[in-house]
Amino acid sequence: MSALMVKTISQENPLWVSWHDTQMMASLNPQNVMDYFCRKSNPFYDRMCNNENIRMQRLGLENLNNMVGLEYILLHVHEPILYVIRKQHRHSPTDAIPISDYYIIGGMVYKAPDLANVINSRILSTVTNLQLAFEEASNYSRYHPNKGYTWDFTSNKALSDKSKAAAKKDATSNKDESGTVFQMQRVDMLLAELLRKFPPPVPPNLHQQQLQQSGSQSNANVQDHNAAASDLNANTASSSNGTTSEASPVTALGVEIKQEMIDMKPPPEKRAKQN
């Protein structure tokens, strides 16, 4: 890349520019890093600064505090790989306004972006990704006058298989998966125990109706028991008088009792044999 092209790009957007010197980048240290940055081939270095005047006069960097104007200082050092250099405008020995920062990583010089550039870059990348996602989704959208908008993933086999698997899972998994069998049984047992200890109050009207129903049921059971007992007595009496009844006696529980009829006639007399 030519020096003219580098200068043109650095003027438009210096964040896209990097610089290095292969002769000195392997031997950088806090003592020579400022000389490395202030080389004339560095596009980030302004020759009209106070550092250039000091270099021409062969003075030390400590004289920068006594001068007014543009200057470069070593701001941060993290040996052996990171160096941060600040460009600032000095108004007095105690007053200097920062302009921009530059960092050197492994001998490569870059300009540090400011907060506005970082936010703009993040917003631009977010909007770009969202636009690509909407464009991708719009390719699978279909419209029908009767059905409305639907999705058609037949052109994308992976999405089609995924949608079919999801539909099949929704159709087949209708059971409650909110907990395990042990958890559900445990909860049911606790609810039953609480219901037994603290039964819900019964309204007075409902309590009277329950008492009336229980009384009517008990009376009906007593009548059925008496009727069954009378039938049993009648059958017993008829069998004792020698009359055979075709119907078998029935107990109060409704169980049929089978009885075996015994003939009570005396055996025939034996006759003596005649010689």
UniProtKB/TrEMBL annotation:
Gene Ontology BP terms: regulation of transcription by RNA polymerase II
Record's keyword annotation contains Transferase: no
InterPro entries linked: Mediator_Med6 (IPR007018), Mediator_Med6_met/pln (IPR016820), Mediator_Med6_sf (IPR038566)
Record field: compositional bias (Basic and acidic residues): 257-275
Source superkingdom: Eukaryota
Annotated GO MF terms: transcription coregulator activity
Gene3D superfamilies for the chain: Mediator complex, subunit Med6 (3.10.450.580)
Presence of keyword DNA-binding: no
Pfam families, alphabetized: Med6
Low complexity bias (residue ranges): 208-218, 233-248
GO cellular component terms, A-Z: mediator complex
Places the protein is found: Nucleus
Region feature Disordered, mapped onto this chain: 198-275
Keywords: Activator, Nucleus, Transcription, Transcription regulation
Family: Belongs to the Mediator complex subunit 6 family.
Protein name per its UniProtKB record: Mediator of RNA polymerase II transcription subunit 6
Protein source organism: Glossina austeni
